[in-house]
Each structure stands twice: as structure tokens, then as C-alpha cells.
Design goal:
The chain is of the alpha/beta class. The chain is built from 16 helices and 10 strands.
């Protein structure tokens, strides 16, 4: 709710000052560049209304309004500078370019005026807004709701170091005990319970940040806690060991801050996420239209190969654990799982002859473009699994739950490497590649995975 309030406030500020910048630019363009009298005509008022909408939308795509309370001043300057540059170029080629001009120097003057005016007029109120917001967050009781996991000497040191900083943005709710012994934080902050009840504590207190004061050598405990805490929204910080410092994995973002590693919730910037979703919709729409001949061929092949429906619908676990029905062309005989869930294998007698060919060429996956258009899937992302197998995988490797934090994909890095998994062990092997993808995902990586998927389809080398 706090983020929504401040984001809405900044949207209003951005709209007002974007309109002011356009109004000043329009006046100067007419009087100083074109040498005409200024007239507040329909075009002027239309621009004054719609151009600010463009800027607000551009800021939104850029991610300015995402997690707004964590944007620091230098970052705000960078965001405004980048958006002003590219936004000016877009407006110039859509609204300002005109073949009927006295001199092409007018073009350069228009670009310079628009860029300079918008950058100056938009940046000043944004920095004022940013400064007031930071002061509000640093005031007593308005910081990020934070808990410390652990109650040892390390936890006490972290707490004392943070509260003594003038730049502290944490509002400590309390601490959670890990081993039942360390209680050194008693008297400093409230005791909230044991780590066994971590999810309940976080939900009850609406936790925004978690600081792990667990020995870095205790990898299993750290891995278990991180997998339970990481929901894509909560910031997780922990003290680095000497290996992490020497290997260069400790990133400094605040000179006055404590020496903590922050686990990045999502490696893909918001603007790339927006473009990724746009690509999903556009490419899936094109695919659905262009692949109609393949759909007809596949439907007829499935229908005449064996009795049963053309499509196979199955419940899979999607983003944030939401269940959806995945759409595939049927590649197995009807009632192939009458004895319960079973994974397919090489030479599986349940697969029809045409189904074997469709699996190798991935033709059976083509209907999932509809799932993408419905927002249930993405073109690239971890493959969705059934809850039955997720329960088995999580018992061995709790980190698998991270893969449900993003939209599942028609293809993935793990799918390119392994294809269809034949058992839980292969699922775990495939999971490693999908986890690496999750921590490094980008538009460039998505395009690369799609490229290799196309090669697999053309060569019919799918497993």
C-alpha cells in the first residue's frame, strides 16, 4: 500500500511537470525556432494532455514506479536522463519531424530544446520528491519492516551497526531464533519465535526485509531459509564470508551501509520484463496465425493415429503456485496414466507413433501459444510441472520452489539441454539449468534459448 501511494503521487507530479515542459517547449518552438506567433490552438491543448501520458507510460515501462521507495537520488537522475533522451527521440520522429521546414537546423534546435527542457523541468521536482521520501523512510517507524534471523553475536553486531547509521532505512520488528539457543538480541528487539514458524511471522508482520545472521558455513540451513523467505518481493541480506569478499561477489551500493550481500529478487530489470511480455504476446499471436497449417496437420494426425481427443489438457503449477491447464496435442494413448502419474521415457509404449514424431519436433507444444496469450505462460521460462512431482522434488531440493516465482515457459534452458525428463533425478538435473537461467535471465538470454529451440524443432532432435 505504501509503494502504491508514493507511486501514485509521483505519477501526478510527473504528469504535471511533463505537461509544463511540453507547454514551454511548444511556446519556444513557435516563437524562437519557427519565428511565428504563439497561438494556444487545439494542437497545443491536445499535446498538453496526451504528451504527458506518453512520458508517464515511458517511466512505467522503465520501472520508475516499481518498488519506488528503494530508488535513491543518483538512480533517479539516471532514470530521468535515460528516459529524457530516448523519449525525446521518439517524440521527435512521431510528432515533430516535418518535411516542410526552412532549415534542418530547426530539427536540431527542436531536439535540443525538448531534451533540455524536459530533463530540467522533470528532474528538479523528482529529486525534491525523492529527498522528501527518503527523509520520511528514515524517520522513526517508517522504514522497511525488517526482521533478523538469528540471535548470536553476529546478529547483535549487525543490529548495532545499522541503528547507529544516520542513513538507516530499517525499522526492526524483531528477531527469529534459529537454533533455540542464541538469544543475545533479547532486550534489544522483540523475540518473534522460532525459524520453524518463519512464514507465519513474515505474513503476520508484513515483513519487507530479512537479514540473515546465520553462519555462512552452515550452507544447508542458509539454503533452506532463503528458499522459504524468497518470494520475489522481500529483500534478503546476509553477511559475506571472506571467500565472497575476495571473489568479488560483494556489491557495494551504499558507502555508509553495513557490509551485507543483498540477494537480488529478480535479475531482469522491469523494462525488460515489460518488453518480454510484449514479445510473448506479439510472437504468440503471430505464431497462432502462421502455424494454422501445422495445427490442422497435427490435429488430423492425432485424430487418425489413435482413438481419443485431439488436445491433451493437464493441470500444471504456474507463477506463484497458481494452477492452470496446459494445452498440448495428445501424444499418448487414452488412459495412459490410469495407474497414477508417470513420466514418459525413451521407447515408452504409451506414446503413439505420430506422438513420437511430434515430441521430437516439439509440434505437441505448439498449442501452448494460447497459454501464453492467456497470461499463464511465457515463451521462455522454467517448464511447468505437476504438483505431484513438485512435492517429490522439493523434498530433495527445496530450491525448486524458486522456479514458480516467474511465468513458466514453452521452452527453457533446461528443456533445450535435457528435453523431457524421464525421472525425478533428471528433473533435478534440468532444474540446475533453470535456476541459473532464473538468476541471470535477460532478453538476450531469452532470444538465445528461442534460437536453439528453433534449431531443435527443425532438426527434430528433441528428446
Amino acid at each position: 500500500m505504501k509503494d502504491r501511494f508514493w507511486a501514485s503521487f509521483l505519477v501526478i507530479v510527473d504528469y504535471i511537470f511533463a505537461a509544463a515542459a511540453w507547454g514551454v517547449f511548444f511556446y519556444l518552438r513557435k516563437t524562437q525556432i519557427e519565428g511565428q506567433d504563439f497561438i494556444a490552438d487545439t494542437k497545443f491543448y491536445l499535446g498538453l494532455t496526451l504528451v504527458p501520458v506518453f512520458w508517464v507510460f515511458f517511466y512505467f515501462i522503465q520501472g520508475t514506479y516499481q518498488d519506488i521507495r528503494r530508488i535513491f537520488r543518483l538512480q533517479m537522475v539516471n532514470l530521468t536522463l535515460v528516459s529524457s533522451f530516448f523519449g525525446t527521440i521518439i517524440l521527435f520522429f512521431t510528432l515533430l519531424i516535418d518535411d516542410d521546414v526552412k532549415s534542418y537546423q530547426n530539427f536540431y534546435k527542436s531536439i535540443f530544446f525538448l531534451f533540455g527542457l524536459h530533463l530540467f523541468i522533470a528532474l528538479i521536482p523528482r529529486l525534491i520528491f525523492n529527498t522528501l521520501l527518503i527523509r520520511f523512510i528514515r524517520s522513526n517507524g517508517h522504514g522497511f519492516k525488517t526482521i533478523i534471523i538469528g540471535g548470536n553475536e553476529k546478529a547483535v553486531d549487525i543490529y548495532n551497526e545499522l541503528i547507529q547509521q544516520e542513513q538507516n532505512t530499517n525499522s526492526f520488528i524483531g528477531y527469529v531464533n534459529v537454533n533455540g539457543k542464541d538469544t543475545l538480541l533479547n532486550g534489544l528487539i522483540p523475540y518473534l519465535g522460532h525459524a520453524n514458524n518463519l512464514e507465519e511471522v513474515m505474513s503476520q508482520h508484513e515483513v519487507e526485509e530479512v537479514i540473515l545472521a546465520v553462519e555462512s558455513s552452515d550452507h544447508n540451513r542458509l539454503k533452506d531459509i532463503i528458499s522459504r523467505v524468497d518470494n520475489g518481493r522481500i529483500r534478503i541480506k546476509l553477511l559475506p564470508d571472506m571467500y565472497a569478499i575476495l571473489s568479488g561477489s560483494v556489491e557495494m551500493t551504499n558507502i555508509y551501509g553495513a557490509l551485507l550481500i543483498e540477494i537480488i529478487p529478480d535479475a531482469m530489470p522491469f523494462w525488460q520484463q515489460a518488453i518480454k511480455r510484449l514479445m510473448d504476446v506479439m510472437l504468440s499471436l503471430i505464431a497462432v496465425i502462421c502455424l494454422i497449417p501445422f495445427y490442422i496437420f497435427s490435429a488430423l494426425a492425432v485424430k487418425f493415429s489413435s482413438p481419443g481427443p485431439i488436445f491433451f489438457l493437464q493441470e500444471r503449477v504456474g507463477v506463484n503456485g497458481k494452477v492452470f491447464r496446459i494445452i498440448k496435442f495428445r501424444t499418448m494413448y487414452v488412459n495412459s496414466e490410469k495407474q497414477g502419474p508417470q513420466l514418459s521415457s525413451e521407447g515408452d509404449p504409451r506414446i503413439t507413433p505420430i506422438g513420437r514424431f511430434m515430441r521430437k519436433t516439439r509440434l505437441d507444444e505448439f498449442p501452448q501459444f494460447v497459454n501464453v496469450l492467456l497470461g499463464q505462460m511465457s515463451l521462455v521460462g522454467p517448464r511447468p510441472e505437476r504438483q505431484f512431482y513438485i512435492d517429490q522434488i522439493v523434498k530433495v531440493e527445496p530450491q525448486y520452489i524458486h522456479l514458480t516465482k516467474v511465468r513458466p515457459g514453452i521452452t527453457s534452458w533446461g528443456q533445450v539441454k535435457y528435453g523431457y525428463a524421464e525421472n525425478v533425478d533428471q528433473m533435478l538435473q534440468r532444474m540446475k539449468f533453470d535456476l541459473i537461467y532464473l538468476k541471470n535471465r535477460s532478453l538476450a538470454l531469452d532470444i538465445k534459448i528461442m534460437f536453439y529451440t528453433v534449431i531443435i524443432v527443425i532438426k527434430a532432435k528433441g528428446k
